[in-house]
Predict the structure.
Amino acid sequence: MLLALLLAFPAISPKGAVAAANPLAADAGASILRRGGNAIDAAVAAAFALSVTEPESSGLAGGGFALVYTAKEKRVHVLDFREVAPAKATKDMYIVDGQPRQDLANMGPLSVAVPAATKGYVELAKRFGTRPLSQLTSAAEQLAQRGFQIDLHFHRAAAERLDCLLQDPESTRLFLNREKEPLEPGDRLIQPELARTLHAIGEHGADAFYKGRIARALVDAVKSKGGILELDDLAHAQVREHAPLVTTYRGHRIATMPLPSSGGFIVGALLNVLEREDPRAGGYRPERFLHVMAEAEKRLFALRERMGPAWCSTTRWTISRWRRASPTPTACAATSKMHPVRARCP
């Protein structure tokens, strides 16, 4: 711990900063800022780089959300490019012999949704960025072409999903060593095919991914294993725009993600609970404040669990129902029976 503190240093910049789950991705974003790009340019460059360095959680075939504040308009834009199920998906596709099969939903061809991340990144760059898309994919392309040394996080992720990786020859070739074991920290991962895909996206936009050769290869690979993804699913991949979920915290206006993300609603309700407490009362580790936070989080996530699929449903009825809800009464309901804390609701 002492060594870590001695080696730690602040990242200071008068022009901006980039935070990402991998330092190589943060470097990609910071490089764009240094070359005159704006915050969206940097975010997109970092996201493309993460598709190389963290394929298990940030791949091009994933999805995401984006909150963008435009100072000129003084407006918060909410972009939703989470994956959706293929058109051929059914409500009982993970039921076998009358029993639910969570493993079918977690891995394998039937777990593949319609990718939307690439379309979302390109849309962000087109609407809010200032740099050519090819510049935003360049760092990621180089990382994939030249390779990078994997870290402990990558190694552990591969080890956790080893059975899944072994089921596919290409995954085995790319992410495992000759002994068919996870790559070790420090090993170099080179992905020339991914580099070519990133180059095509940079030159031709989202169509390079959702149409033509890459789209056909993606669909053929999934269907050959028994999946249900079709070219028509890719052709209809969308970036949806929503109104932000707005609440307040100690006089500040907080804008966050609405459905289908439950995170924004939970964060808003949690802040509504915590603003009634003094985080400075009690010294370094204020027991009351920490107790309230832990208990509120527990109850809010229990509420989320009870709601089940309603949180991620995009049906008109469900969205209308939850848009009428507010984090403030949710906070009161979640904490009304908290002991020894009693929620003070209006």
Summary: Residues 12 and 18 are 11 Å apart (CA to CA). The radius of gyration is 22 Å.
